[in-house]
Amino acid sequence: MYLLLLLVCCTALATLPTSAQTPLQGAARAGTISGRVVDAATVLPLVGAAVVLEPRDLGAFPVRAPGGSAFIQSTRSAVTDSAGRYRFGEVPEGEYRLHVQRIGYRATTLGVELRGASDSRVSVGLTVEPVALEPIQVSTPAAPRAPSTYQRTVSSEAEGNARIAAERVRQRQYLSSDVRAVTHSDVVESVTLGETDLFRALQRLPGVSARDEYAAELWIRGAPWDHTRVYFDGLPLFSPLHGLGLFSAINPDAVGAAFLHPGVQPAWASGGAAGMLDLRTRAGSEEGELHGLGEVSLASSRLALDGGSGDGRHSWMVAGRRSYLDWLTGIAESILGRDNTYQFPYSFSDLTARSNYRLGANSTIEISGLLQRNAVGNDNPNILNAVAARWGAGATRATLQIPLGGFHTRHSAGFSGFGSSVSHWGEDWDWRFGHEAVHRDIAAQQLSSGIRYGALEGEVQPLASATWSAGYQLVSQHVRFSGPRPTPFTPLEPGAYGLHRENGLTSGALWANRRWKPVDALTLETGLRLETASAANESLHWAPRLTARYQLTPGTSISGGMGRSYQHLQSVAPAGPSPERGFRTDQLWVLAGDSVPTLRTDIATLGAESWIGGWIASVTTYLRHSTGVAMPDPVPGPTLDRALFVTGESRARGVDLSVRRLAGPWTASAAYSFSSSDRSVGELRFPAPEDQRHVFDATALMRLDPRWRLGAAYTAASGAPYTRIFRGSTRCTAE
Fold it and tell me: Rounded distance, CA 384 to CA 580, Å?
């Protein structure tokens, strides 16, 4: 079915009229403007920088004139290759502006005068300016300059240009219309709960939802949270949540770029059946000055620092965050002289760091790390039944970038992990089912679980052209669980319902992708990923992917894609709404092996995207089919005397629509998603627990002045189905 859909999409694209690029209007004599874009500090080439060439009397991103087009036909653009090169041919003589921009660097504009049929070489060095997710104001007696990383009083024009630039870069890097880039302004405009939260900002995007307003986890197109792979500098993070699921465990002050892939994913990525979130830490300033940023919100306090050696050889960044409610209530408790009455029993913290070091003119080494911690602990039986628990995650990686011959190579080694432990459940556990109270005397219990993930990977691409790349990946994973069997409500007796599960998996992969243009208006990108694993039932997995984009006009395009992905690690939770599960850490992770198949997902998308002045609108339809999905047994009956999980299939289909105003004194966004997601086990087919048919999000932000902003956000969503749990021997029949 997906092959047929892809064939129809490609046939439709092929039958559309092609249009050559509109040349710059001017004199008959034409020349060439070319050059390189490099990092001003390290002199290393910058790949993927956007270079825009326009006549001197036009703006880079002009506003639509009355009765005219929203885009200037005489404006041309290019993207630098792996060597930082760009080139504009057949340029008529005259005066031009050359705009150069790249995410994480300060944009610059140069004047260029071309006389006759000559060749003009213009090379540009960009200075680092990371995309800060929460800047503050810095005053200096120096001459006026462009907004820095730590300025809070950024003009609406500068913010708008940054958002438009991010979207332009996203469109050049990825062909699919459903790939999303998230900037600092997007996070601010989303008006998140309690504090600036990246995951909650992502929930405003089309196709992304959550169980309720208290959950920060991401449901992508009707899929569970564990089917979304979150990458931190190329390493997966497992359950990166704080506040019992209320907040993301990613400090926004440490993020330099964030891209969400809800459809066809890049060939280098694996492990996300429904989607992939690619997070990249920001590099520190190389100016030799110490920069700082701090914030106190309703939920936590944050501090970020960065600096460098001053000569461009070394830079560093560190960002920390911790909740403080336990400290404040502890102080109040000590003042009032009451034991464990007022002290809040929960706390969370995280620490993110990155260091860059230039080994030579074209060689660098990057080291980054992340540590997350959550703790619940108290001795008061009236508060969470005296539960004492600890859980958290961590990741660290080292990356070497070095040229070899005529190729640019990148090699990384990293480790990621997750661990949890419950040292005490309490001895008197009361839970109410309906109108009947249940009481159990449960002895102190021990529970522990964990994940270990290690990877060695690399990538190579030619220096002369960025049209193809290839890479390898070696991964070792290990999961363990020891304790009472997970249940929706009260914990079980460990003696009668103890569970110990442990297994590992080693896998390897080779991947490659290539981009080319059969005609001027059509761009194709193909990719192939080959995977194999050490499990007995694992064979060679083929994961092809294809994306295409046809440029109808300079501002309007249609795109389609088809891809396959594999996921070896899944999370299994008991059936039911589990209102109490957020206070526990009995999450069961299972690896593909003798009794667990590999989760395989096929997806096909078709969409369109269009610019209208400072607005951008998109629509995307999709079909997704997954096999090997681990889930609770859906057959009605007692929950204890059955397998921990069964495997089945899931299907999802829907359409995502969005419109966004990116620039101006006021900005806004609106997104609507229609989705239908279901699961099947044997002959039984039922709606998925994450099936939300209709989701609508809207945001608006008015910039009253550089220091004051007024924002609002609105969300409306259909309810999600759930499995109802009955106590005792209530009889259930399947319909």
Answer: 10
Q: Are residues 181 and 322 in the same domain?
A: yes
Cβ(380)–Cβ(386) under 8 Å?
yes
What count of Cα atoms within 13 Å lies in the side-chain half-sphere of residue 545? Answer: 31
Q: Say if CB 672 and CB 206 are below 8 A apart.
A: yes
The answer to whether 513 and 266 are in contact (CB under 8 A) is yes
User: CB under 8 Å to 649, separation ≥6 — which residues?
Assistant: 625, 626, 627, 629, 679, 680, 681
345 close to 309: Cβ distance less than 8 angstroms: no
Residue pair 177/557 in contact (Cβ under 8 Å)? The answer is: yes
Q: Name 422's bridge partners.
A: 389, 447
Angle (CA) 160 164 170, round 5°? 150
Residue 563 near residue 525 (C-beta atoms within 8 A) = no
For 482-486, the CB contacts below 8 A with 24+ separation are 482/446, 482/447, 482/448, 482/449, 483/422, 483/445, 483/446, 483/447, 483/448, 483/449, 483/586, 484/445, 484/447, 484/586, 485/640, 485/644, 486/572, 486/573, 486/574, 486/586, 486/587, 486/588, 486/644
Best CA proximity match to 627, nearest among 207, 270, 273: 273
This prediction has a pTM of 0.76
Q: Are 389 and 586 in contact (CB under 8 A)?
A: no
Q: Using an 8 Å Cβ cutoff, are 137 and 152 in contact?
A: yes
Do 174 and 121 fall within a single domain? no
The pLDDT tens digits for 244-263 are 788 899 998 899 889 999 99
Q: How far, CA to CA in Å, does 667 sit from each of 159, 160, 166, 242, 616? A: 10, 9, 15, 30, 12
Domain of residue 16: give its range.
2-129
Which regions in the chain score pLDDT beneath 70?
1-30, 56-75, 116-117, 130-156, 338-342, 378-387, 424-445, 488-497, 536-538, 575-586, 723-735
Same domain, 99 and 243: no
Residues 102 and 173 in one domain: no
